[in-house]
Amino acid sequence: MSRSAHPAGPRHADVLPEGRSVASAAPPADPNALDPKVWAQTVARNADGVVTVGGVDVNALAAQVGTPAYVLDEADFRARARAWRTAFGHDADVFYAGKAFLSRAVVRWLDEEGLNLDVCSGGELATALSAGLSPDRIAFHGNNKTPAEIRRAVEAGVGRIVLDSFQEIVRVAHIARELDKRQRVQIRVTVGVEAHTHEFIATAHEDQKFGIPLAGGQAAEAVRRALQLDSLDVIGIHSHIGSQIFDMSGFEVAAHRVVGLLKDIRDEHGVELPEIDLGGGLGIAYTSEDDPREPHEIAKALTEIVTRECESARLRTPRISVEPGRAIAGPTTFTLYEVGTVKPLEGLRTYVSVDGGMSDNIRTALYDAEYSVALASRTSDAEPMLVRVVGKHCESGDIVVKDAFLPADLAPGDLIAVPATGAYCRSMASNYNHALRPPVVAVRDGEARVIVRRESEEDLLRLDVG
Ligand code: LLP
Question: Do both 356 and 248 map to the same domain?
Fold first, then answer.
């Protein structure tokens, strides 16, 4: 996702957006085909050409729950969660990053599939606890947890709090002491890796708000201080280098540097910290051009490097944990929209307006993210046309899919689906223009179940107490 500046206004249809190859702008060979790379496992077309997921067709779904809607393939979600669990085996832990998408149903699926949960706010913690997840399977993150959030987490007995600053070390120690508890903690360090991703979602270079830099001995000093505090049980070091990453080398450098710190800690304090967490960040396919790595590949690479580095430093190999969010939730879901208008601008481009937009998917506006799209309510033999799919918000940057092909006979009332919207779409949704946030519908074995309902005007007005 390059963040090259380009004019927000319309461009000629034959001018390719920056960063996209000519190949990617060529019309697809079969415009009705659904590339399994970007669609959830059970997505297919039925004999009438209608897109189905979990055995339910999108026309029936739209009739049942309306549009826009996030449609989540439960079998796919569970399969991805299980793939991570299996890849890392019993000597490691997988904490799903709830910020990608969290609801009580999701918490129960994770619980059943043997995953733990990373939360980063009081709200996420409350969701996890209300779904009955055992608190010792929860990791609590954030660069500025409030004292109230910390107190709630310590009282609940969360398995670990990931400390992000010198002040927080003292704050958590103090609250744990007051509650007469010894809190298990990890210390989040920034390892100085430049992850190859969008600058807004890279988190391991030093000039940024997360973590404590390894550079200049600051992380070592943080460990020194934390080890002195009786109410803290320092169990390990945490590193998260960024998100939507395809290149494994950043993870490997991070693992190498974290093990280096473990060695320094052993040499200075005679303590071998038992755990390291290497965060999340594995990229997914948003378009057919993306080639993501599989969980077993990252598991193998991380396990090998940690084992090797520990052997050479003569350290006991720590228990590894990881925190995938996008790689589990992202591919499970597509957003179903109804086309409202199709507006060809002579010599420029064709705008397809849908009944949602930046309020249900801010990622295109925020990160220049690329998405795919398909006509879902039917197939078409019409010529493909290059379009821009836009929302209904009062902003020209309200773009859902920057450049994509849809059939030239596309018309109001058609349903279109945008795949790979399971991560950071509902969780970053807003009420801009008093939009009502769409529901999340989980589909499985021929049944659709609303797991997060659509917001209503009453929901909006309930908050307006003036
Ligand atoms: N662990 C920590 C400490 C994190 O901060 C994150 C993501 C994850 C794990 C999960 O990363 P994932 O596996 O999902 O890449 N809103 C942005 C992504 C922000 C990621 C923030 N932290 C987006 O839509 O691309």
Answer: no
Divide the 466 residues of the chain into consecutive groups of 10 and give the mean pLDDT of each group: 33 39 66 95 98 98 98 98 97 97 98 98 98 98 98 98 98 98 98 71 74 95 98 98 90 93 97 97 96 94 94 96 98 98 95 98 97 98 96 97 97 98 98 98 98 98 95
Phi-psi region of 157 (alpha: psi -120 to 50; beta: other; left: phi over 0): left
Q: How far is 367 from 386, CA to CA, in rounded Å?
A: 21
pLDDT score for 248:
86
Tell me: do 338 and 320 sit in the same domain: no
Whole-model pTM: value is 0.94
Residue with the two structure tokens 């297919």? 44
DSSP H helical ranges for 375-415: none
Per-residue buried b or exposed e for 378-402, using 16+ beta carbons within 10 Å of the residue's own CB:
bbbeeebbbbbbbbbbeeeebbbbb
Distance 100 CA to ligand 1 centre (A): 7
pLDDT for 247: 87
Q: Which CATH number covers residue 280?
A: 3.20.20.10
* pLDDT of the residue at 201: 60
> Of the candidates 282, 303, 324, which is a domain's last residue?
324
Q: Are 320 and 339 part of one and the same domain?
A: no
Q: Do 297 and 406 share a domain, yes or no? A: no
Active site residue 394: yes
Q: What is the pLDDT of residue 389?
A: 98
Q: How many domains does the chain have?
A: 2
Q: What is the CA(323)–ligand 1 centre distance, in A?
A: 9
Of 288, 306, 324, which closes a domain? 324
pLDDT of amino acid 176 = 98
Q: Determine the residue of 323, 366, 421 to mutate for testing ligand 1's pocket, defined as the one with the most ligand atoms within 8 A of the Cβ atom.
A: 323
Q: Which residues contact 164 (CB under 8 A, 6 or more apart)?
A: 141, 142, 143, 144, 145, 188, 210, 211, 212
> Is there a single domain that holds both residue 250 and residue 290?
yes
Do 301 and 418 belong to one domain? no
- Enumerate the β-bridge partners of residue 176: none
Name the closest-CA residue to atom 16, ligand 1: 424
Residues with CB under 6 A from ligand 1: 97, 99-100, 118, 141, 201, 240, 243-244, 279-282, 323-327, 363, 367, 423-424, 428
**Ligand 1: centre distance to CA 423 (Å):** 9
The residue whose CA has the least distance to atom 24 of ligand 1 is: 424
- Domain ranges, residue 452: 22-73+331-463
The domain that holds 372 is classified in CATH as: 2.40.37.10
The reply to whether 353 and 308 lie within a common domain is no
pLDDT at position 202 is 65
